[in-house]
Amino acid sequence: MIKQTFLYSKLEDLDLSMTFYSNPNKSSSKATLLYFHGGGLLYGTRDDLPEIYCALLVENGYNLLTIDYPLAPEVKLPTILTCLKEAIDWFLKNYQTTLGLKNSDYFLFGRSAGGFLSYLLSARSPLPEQKGLISFYGYYDLMNPAFSQPSSYYNQFPKVAPLTAQAMIYPKPITEISINERFSLYLSGRQFGNWLSYLVNTPSEKETFSLTEAELTELPPVFLAHSSADQDVPVESSRIASNKILNVTYEEVENLPHDFDGDITKSEGLQVYQALIAWLDKTLTSI
């Protein structure tokens, strides 16, 4: 597996980069997964997908392009989405010349908050080259009451007062920061029910950045995965979506934490990625 880094854009003086995971024999590649990481849109890094899954995807003919985006609250959702549209444009302009690929077929793939971004871009910026959408424990609706109310799960932890949390906000945009350095900002947001205020400019934008039932029915083929015991994003988010999306495959694992695929000692993660590869193959052959 080869790893290469490319710069796709700049936001002010901040570099926006991507990592390209591919097979040396690119002629065998079937499509590219454009990947958005999780972290509540407040923290994380583009290269957070465990290497075992990256290698599995590449071995099975799928390139992976993991993409930076500027984090909230230094920027808000409109800016994040604008940058990701630039990343998709970069891929479509450079897949042949820079990446050496024979086709521009791609899937949007996100985990948690990255799944939310994948939903939004698939619904609001559809392109013929996109063949499907993959959301692992993601959500499509900021109107979900769980996101605006104090979380009973997160309130088990020591309280982080909003003013303490806000001291972690940088004066300029950033693209990555570790969970250890900034989880407290997300924790406080969920404890006090004000997490969404970091993402949107006004309360009415919560509805603006939520998919309607009609938009769900118009999505390309979708692969969803979620744990029944998710303590962060309610599993109902994927269960409801799986009933409303017309062309959907849904894998639910039992009694594991939110990011169930993060613990590579558990077999469930690997099984879901194998199911994902089977779905990718089937989706491409049915086009």
From TrEMBL:
Pfam families named among the record's database cross-references: Abhydrolase_3
Keywords for this protein: Hydrolase
UniProt keyword Hydrolase present: yes
Annotated Alpha/beta hydrolase fold-3 domain residues: 33-260
Source domain of life: Bacteria
Family matches, as PANTHER family: AB HYDROLASE SUPERFAMILY PROTEIN C4A8.06C (PTHR48081), ALPHA_BETA HYDROLASE FOLD-3 DOMAIN-CONTAINING PROTEIN (PTHR48081:SF3)
Protein name (record): Alpha/beta hydrolase fold-3 domain-containing protein
Protein source organism: Enterococcus caccae ATCC BAA-1240
